[in-house]
Amino acid sequence: MSGKRLSKDERRERILAAAARVFAASGYDGAGMREVATAAGISTPVLYDHFPSKAKLYAGLLESEVDSLLAGWAELPPSGTAEELLRGRVEAIFAWMETNERGWRMIFAETPSDESVAQVHRRGQARATGQLTEVFAQVPGLALTADLPRERANEVLAEAAKSALNAIATWWWSNRDIPREQVVAITADLLWRGLGALIQEDT
């Protein structure tokens, strides 16, 4: 029996899809490379040609989930006000989580212990901070008492907002009875009540 020979990229995508199913069913510690190879329809040596360790495989999958999460932000339309801008981003984040439980768990609900996985996690967090910094850069003048350049203030505010989002996303993982709309509302309230007081209205 013969079939189409997969390219390297196609085989990699098949491996990642199979690994996602295996990790979702067994968790990182319980998953094995042989199990992933079987799910992908390849031999274990071929799997190791693509990913030399389980940690590298998990890191590759984590990176693809971060890409998926952050790609959605770039597709959002511009907002009329700073509050709409912030609430729109919060809504997009939690909507992605609700439809992508695997990525939600990998990014927000699991603490990476292996260093190669932790490095990917840190890069993803840094990318999220960068995107939030761009959001804060679109907010009008801020009445800050801190004597910081606006660019540095945007970065600090983005880091604080990201930490709050991470914490609420982790909490929601264990409190699924709370509807997404309410999680979005309380997160936006938390972030906007402080930021809103700093907004200098144009005159």
From TrEMBL:
GO biological process, one term: negative regulation of DNA-templated transcription
Gene Ontology molecular function: any one: transcription cis-regulatory region binding
Parts of the chain that traverse the membrane: none
UniProt entry tagged with the keyword Transcription regulation: yes
Swiss-Prot/TrEMBL keywords: DNA-binding, Transcription, Transcription regulation
Gene3D superfamilies on file: Tetracycline Repressor, domain 2 (1.10.357.10)
Residue ranges of the annotated DNA-binding region, renumbered to this chain: 32-51
HTH tetR-type domain segment(s): 9-69
Entry keyword annotation includes Phosphoprotein: no
Official protein name in the record: TetR family transcriptional regulator
